[in-house]
Every structure is written in structure tokens, then in C-alpha cells.
Design goal:
About 35% of the residues lie in helices and about 15% in strands. By secondary structure, the protein is α/β, with parallel strands linked by helices. The chain has one domain: Rossmann fold (3-Layer(aba) Sandwich), CATH 3.40.50. InterPro entries: G_SEPTIN_dom, P-loop_NTPase, Septin, Septin3. It is found in: Cytoplasm, Cytoskeleton. Keywords: Cell cycle, Cell division, Cytoplasm, Cytoskeleton, GTP-binding, Nucleotide-binding.
Amino acid sequence: GSSLEPEECSMEPPAVPEEEVPVTVAPGPVGCQLFGYVGIEAVLDQMKIKTMKTGFEFNIMVVGQSGLGKSTMVNTLFKSKVSRKSSQPGQEERIPKTVQLQSITHVIEEKGVKMKLTVTDTPGFGDQINNENCWDPIIKYINEQYERYLREEILITRKRKIPDTRVHGCVYFVPPTGHWLRPLDLEFMRRLSKIVNVVPVIAKADTLTLEERAEFKQRIQEDLKTHAISVYPQEDFDQDPEDRALNDRIREKIPFAVVGADQEHQVNGKRVLGRKTKWGIIEVENPAHCEFPLLQDLLIRRSHLQDLKDITHNVHYESYRVRRLNESNRP
């Protein structure tokens, strides 16, 4: 269209448009061969030194009825007295009327690596005659930790390192009944698996024979599949074939049949953790006796500790963050 303003005259000659030269980029090799030492591998050492200085955080929750050995199991996992015990020795703790949550934080150091460990116990869960909605305080606590992290994250001036109190893993203790999962177990894992990583274990597995243990595990796996309950490690979050192959082997063993003990005994000239019975000593860290080493590898010793934190941040917390931000944007 024509313009209503007068055109400005220019004394410069009109510019000649340059010809476009096609640019071709040759695909480079996937791995470039170096002529000498560059020092890229030093990045791993720098990350290791920085992590050792700052340390890291790991928050775990244990859920189950009283008398299933939750405190003993946590003490066995971390080789120290980190879980809740009675304030007065020899005096049994009273069962609370409602579900109460108690958190204890310790700093554990091993070979220069510091870990701030927070153990959250849930006394009173499943101990009442009427256990309706007994999971509500637990869900409320987990969401409160997400909310606390979200409030720190949306500040204009944020901290360089936000304190992480989010629950990275929830170990659920199944009573060794040898039958099917109870409705309480199914409902709890169905609700909690959507907001946190749930790892089910069979508590006090030494009360079952090997045949009973195998049948009980198979029934639990069928219950979880029938009710579409996704426990950790979830199939949807496997990133590559190697992770899928490793997690498939772990999923075949879930729930782990574990035995906890915080006392050492002499076996063949070695001091081992175990439970002494009339027929012998049940070695906790012996894979032939129980599956406690598998649980320890899953939670601490292998790559799954960082994976628990990554899934908590990238999946469960992200879902909570999106839901809260959508609620705040509604008129």
C-alpha cells in the first residue's frame, strides 16, 4: 500500500543485495580424538570435593504398626542409634491415640562425606480399632514439606541452597501374616505412592519359613498389580535399558523380606549383626538369611539414593508445584 508521508531522498546509491551463499556444516565425529591431556576428567574431582564440603540431605520416613521393628531397622541401616527410642529405659512407650509424627535429625559422616539424615517415625499408625483416615496426618506432613520448599523457591531473593526437608523415601512395613495385604495396607500405598516414593518391606521375616515367605511375596506382588499401585522403583521413570534391567531385577524381589538387629554376635571368628535364637544366629547382612542387603543397596549404597532424590524433586514435587501454582492463578 502507499504511504501518506513524503518519501525522504537519499544521496547514497542504492545497496546491491548480496547473493546468499549456502552454508554447509559437515557432521563432526561423535568422539573427538585429543592430541594431549585437556583435564576434563578433573570436573568429577571438583564435584566430589564440593559435595564433600557441603554434604547432602536425605529424609526417610518409616510407617507401620507398633512392634514391627521400625526403629531397629533404621538403626541397622545406618549402623548407629539414629531412630526414636524410649526416653526411659525399661519403660514401654504408650501408644498415642492418633497418628503422631516425630522427626529426628542426625549428621552422619563417613570417609569425609557428611549426610544430614532425617528419620520421621509415625507412632500410632494402624494401632487403633478404627483406622479410618489414619493416613491423613502423613499426607499432610509430606505436602507441608513440599509447601515449605515451594515458598523458599518462589522468593525474589532466594537462598543459594534451599533447606530440603522433603521426604525422599517412605519405607512401609507389612506385617508378616503370610496371607494377603490388608485393606489398610492397600489404601495407604495407593494414596501415598502418588506423592512419595514408597518401598514396601516384610517386617520380621524370620517368623516365616522360606516357602511362606515366597508365597507371601507373590501374593503381595499380585495385590499391587491388581490395584495398580506403583511402588519404587517405578517402571515409568526408567531412563535407559541399563536402568530398566537393574530395576526389573529389584522389582522381582519387592517387597524385601528383612530382619533388623542392633546387636553383634561372634560367628566363625567375626563380629556380625544378627538375632540369636535357640537354633542359631540369623545374620542380618547375609543374603542367604534375609534380604536386608538388597534394601540397603537400594536406599544407600547404589545409585538409587540420588535417584530417590531426583524423582522426589522432578516428579512428586513438580506435580505439587504445578497444582499449587494453578490454584493460585485461578480467579
